[in-house]
Amino acid sequence: MKGKAAARLLVRAIELRSGLTPSSSSRHFSSGSRSFFLDKLARPVPHQISRCGSSRFSSSAAAHVVNSQNSPTDHENHKNDDQQFSNYWGIITKKTLREDGTPWPWNCFKPSDSYVSDTSIDVKKHHIPDAVVDKVALKTVKFLRALSDLFFQERHGCHAVLLETVAAVPGMVGGMLLHCKSLRKFEHSGGWIKALLEEAENERMHLMTFMEVFQPKWYERALVLAVQGVFFNGYFALYLIFPRLAHRFVGYLEEEAVASYTEFLAALDKGSMPNTPAPAIAIDYWRLPSDATLRDVVFVVRADEAHHRDVNHFAADAHLQGKELKDSPAPIGYH
Ligand SMILES: [Fe+2]
Ligand SMILES: [Fe+2]
C-alpha cells in the first residue's frame, strides 16, 4: 500500500511538473495505462529484491537465488517480474555475441564501433602556423601544456585521464553546433556532425580505457569539474564566433596529446612505469590480441590522437580557404 501511495505522489509530481492537470493527463495516460504505470512504480526494483546480488543491474539469475526458498510458481512469477521490469518500455535489448560465440559484455559500444587502429600514421607531423589565428592557437595550447606538465610532472597515467576528459569536449560541442546549424539553415552538414561526434566518442573511450588502469584522486576529479565548466562554455562560444580558430586550437591540442603519449611510451619502455596487461575494454574496442599490454593501448591511442589532429587541421584549413565544412568531405570513420 505504501508503495502505491508513493507511486501516486510521484505521478502527481510528474503531472504538476509537466503542467498537466489530472484531467488533462488522462489524455496521455488512459485509465488502464495509468494503473499499469502505478503498478509498475509500486513494484520493488530488482536490486531491492536481490540483497545478495553484487551486480548493479540485477539479473533474473539474482532473482533466482533470492527466491530459491519459495515454491516453483513463486519463483516463476518473480522471474517474470524481473523480465517485465527489464523490458519496461517494451524494448528488448538484443544479446550481442562475439565471433567466437561468447557474450559481448559492453553496453557502451558494440562490435560495429570497434576497429583496428591505423598506427602507420605520421605522429611527428606539425602544422606550421602561418596566420595570426594559428599562432594564437599554438601559443594558447603551449601555455596550457606547460601548466598541465607542471601539475602532473611524471604521472603520465593521471595526465592521460585528465587530458581525455578535456579532449572529449570539442567534438561534442562542434558536432552539436553543426547539428543546430543544419536544422537552422535547412541544409546538410556534409557528414561533419557524425565525424565530430565520432571523435568525441573515440576520446571518451580513451577515458573509459584509462579509467580501468588509473584512478584519479579526489582533487583531480575536482579539477575536472572546474576545467569542464570553463572549457565547455569557452569552446562553445569560440566555435560559434570563430570555428576556424576552434578547429586549429584542437589540432594543436591533439599534437600535444601525441607528444604526451610519446612520453608515456618512453616511460613504459624505460621501465619507470609498469607495463600492465591491457584492460579488457581496450582489447575489444581496438581489436587487440588477448595478450596485449598497456604499451599496445597507448600506441593505438596515440594513433587516434594523430587522426584527430589531422581532422581538425583539415577543418581549420577548409575555413581558411573560405569554404564551409559541408563543402569538404568529412572524414567519417577516420579515428
Ligand atoms: Fe584521446
Ligand atoms: Fe584526440
UniProtKB/TrEMBL annotation:
Q: Which InterPro entries match?
A: AOX, AOX_sf
Query: Which residues bind Fe cation 2 per the record?
Result: 203, 254, 305, 308
The EC number of this protein is 1.10.3.11
Name the chain's protein: Ubiquinol oxidase
Primary site of residence: mitochondrion
**SUBUNIT field:** Homodimer; disulfide-linked.
Keyword annotations for this protein?
Electron transport, Iron, Membrane, Metal-binding, Oxidoreductase, Respiratory chain, Transmembrane, Transmembrane helix, Transport
Annotated region described as Disordered, given as residue ranges: 63-82
Q: Write out the GO cellular component annotations.
A: mitochondrial inner membrane; mitochondrion; respiratory chain complex
Entry cofactor note text?
A: Binds 2 iron ions per subunit.
- Set out the biological process GO terms recorded for this chain's protein: alternative respiration
State the superkingdom.
Answer: Eukaryota
